[in-house]
């Protein structure tokens, strides 16, 4: 039997146990969904959907998603150990392929050391940073598992079960807004690797794919900077920022198309300001930090929205190579930093923002040049900053609020980075958001957020291969057809199921 239960937010699991015992006796129960109800703020409630009585046995990932295993499938090479590459390798291994997973960066532990050293003033390593290394861009991230992709309930369940198997908190199976946190992701990706190794997958780090192997017009594996990996099945899952690889694929004749994408910056507020607006209180015992998701139309009609909100989180320098200045947001499971941040983004068409870029690769070059511009202005990984009223007119503030960013925040006239029409639209959006969240327009604007969605799409043929390169498959954010941890993981899983397994 399914039933709804509402308890004051901050109630413990014991409170839920007791309530269920009182109403339904001592039989087993399962939480199907848990969400926060703030409609009567400052009174907040946890809403639970509960199943009681005879419960179906919890499925294992393997039972939920059966994969036919066959002998003699041959060798598969998967490039990229992010969510897409990981789940592609998982499925191909279950289907009977002899799988090699290639990652250009180092294992997670070493990667963490490199990032910490960078944030203390060391060099930014071009294969070991917030974008590259074991687990991909998803490792040192916020670890939100929300996704706007529709019709993925079975795949989503499979991925969540795997993550719990690797040590993610069990609550991600039922929370309406599941969140793993960077500290848990660090352990999770290593457990995932251990599982693949025990199942016979050959996981290789520090292998940067620089080209494809071709045989009679078909892709027959990959070449890295140190080795060759011939394969019967080749799948790339290189993520958003694999610009050198995209250029190589283009030169090889892969079909690319530029598409609408989003540009903007991070905005950071004191966590308590957001809590007050969303909960009516600065803190609620038992709750971590308040979330928001906002969307509005600027005066011009352009869509402006917030994205990848990190309650109680940090803004981080997420450049994928030296000389670029890009920001993103992360949080730990506890979500306990004094700040909350989110991307504020405008949907743009490539021809509006880069009018001279007449080919997909010219769009890529222009995007990289934009990411380099902030670095060139500041000469380092310090981050440009301003306040919302200063956006359109380019006002320079003599001082800015404190920030979670690990490097100094330098006041900058954002007109040196973005065109005025874009700043006006983003500014309009922030004014509208301030009608929903009081004080939103007092936030600190930081850096450039350029990686929330891909500017290019790699075209796939009806058989799922990369158009122009038979025998090659691509999945995840790098394909331009997915974005975010869950949707990229689902894409990797689906492409492997549909074209390999
Ligand atoms: C700081 C940060 C926070 C984020 N927070 C969230 C969040 O909370 N929720 C969410 O849904 N999304 C979040 N994202 C986005 C999310 O991480 C990505 O959408 C997702 O990881 C994409 O998965 P992917 O497997 O397609 O690619 P990636 O995770 O980018 O993985 C690609 C991998 O391929 C490797 N690679 C690239 N080129 C080569 C090559 N030539 N040879 C060998 N290996 C190569 C890279 O090193 C990388 O490890 C965040 C991203 C960042 C940077």
TrEMBL record:
Pfam families: FAD-depend_C (PF21688), FAD_binding_3 (PF01494)
Gene Ontology terms, MF aspect: FAD binding
InterPro entries: FAD-bd, FAD-binding_protein, FAD-depend_C, FAD/NAD-bd_sf
Residue span(s) of domain FAD-dependent protein C-terminal: 261-450
Gene3D superfamilies, alphabetized: FAD/NAD(P)-binding domain (3.50.50.60)
SUPFAM superfamilies named in the record: FAD/NAD(P)-binding domain
Segment forming the signal sequence: none
Domain FAD-binding: 77-115
PANTHER family: FAD/NAD(P)-BINDING OXIDOREDUCTASE (PTHR42842), FAD_NAD(P)-BINDING OXIDOREDUCTASE FAMILY PROTEIN (PTHR42842:SF3)
Record protein name field: FAD-binding domain-containing protein
């Amino acid at each position: 039997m399914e039933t709804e239960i509402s308890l004051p937010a901050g109630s413990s699991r014991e409170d839920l146990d007791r309530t269920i015992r009182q109403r339904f006796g001592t039989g087993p129960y399962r939480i199907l969904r848990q969400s926060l109800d703030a409609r009567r703020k400052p009174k907040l409630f946890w809403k639970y959907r509960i199943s009681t009585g005879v419960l179906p046995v919890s499925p294992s990932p393997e039972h939920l998603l059966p994969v036919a295993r066959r002998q003699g499938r041959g060798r598969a090479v998967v490039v990229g150990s992010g969510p897409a590459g990981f789940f592609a390798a998982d499925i191909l291994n279950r289907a009977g392929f002899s799988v090699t997973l290639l990652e250009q960066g180092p294992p997670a532990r070493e990667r963490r050391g490199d990032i910490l050293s960078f944030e203390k003033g060391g060099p930014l390593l071009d294969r070991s940073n917030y974008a590259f290394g074991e687990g991909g861009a998803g490792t040192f991230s916020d670890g939100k598992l929300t996704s706007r992709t529709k019709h993925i309930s079975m795949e989503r369940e499979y991925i969540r079960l795997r993550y719990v198997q690797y040590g993610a908190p069990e609550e991600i199976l039922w929370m309406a807004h599941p969140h793993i946190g960077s500290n848990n992701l660090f352990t999770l990706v290593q457990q995932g690797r251990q599982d693949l190794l025990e199942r016979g997958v050959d996981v290789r780090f520090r292998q940067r794919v620089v080209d494809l192997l071709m045989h009679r017009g078909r892709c027959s594996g990959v070449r890295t900077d140190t080795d060759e990996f011939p394969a019967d099945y080749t799948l790339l899952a290189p993520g958003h920022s694999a610009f050198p690889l995209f250029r190589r694929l283009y030169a090889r004749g892969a079909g690319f198309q530029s598409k609408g994408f989003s540009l903007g910056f991070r905005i950071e507020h004191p966590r308590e300001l957001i809590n007050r607006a969303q909960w009516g209180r600065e803190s609620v015992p038992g709750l971590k930090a308040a979330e928001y998701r906002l969307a509005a139309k600027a005066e011009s009609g352009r869509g402006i929205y917030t994205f990848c909100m990190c309650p109680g989180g940090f803004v981080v320098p997420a450049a994928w190579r030296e000389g670029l200045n890009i920001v993103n947001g992360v949080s730990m499971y506890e979500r306990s930093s004094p700040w909350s941040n989110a991307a504020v983004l405008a949907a743009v068409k490539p021809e509006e923002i880069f009018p001279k870029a007449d080919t997909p690769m010219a769009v890529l070059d222009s995007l990289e040049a934009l990411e380099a511009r902030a670095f060139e202005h500041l000469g380092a990984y310090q981050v440009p900053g301003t306040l919302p009223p200063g956006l359109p007119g380019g006002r320079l503030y003599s001082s800015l609020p404190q920030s979670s960013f690990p490097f100094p925040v330098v006041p900058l006239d954002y007109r040196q980075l973005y065109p005025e029409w874009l700043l006006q639209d983003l500014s309009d959006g922030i004014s509208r958001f301030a009608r929903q969240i009081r004080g939103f327009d007092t936030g600190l604007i930081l850096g450039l957020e350029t990686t929330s969605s891909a500017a290019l799409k790699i075209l796939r043929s009806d058989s799922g291969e990369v158009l122009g390169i038979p025998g090659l498959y691509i999945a995840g954010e790098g394909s331009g057809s997915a974005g975010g941890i869950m949707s990229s993981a689902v894409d990797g899983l689906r492409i492997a199921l549909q074209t390999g397994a």
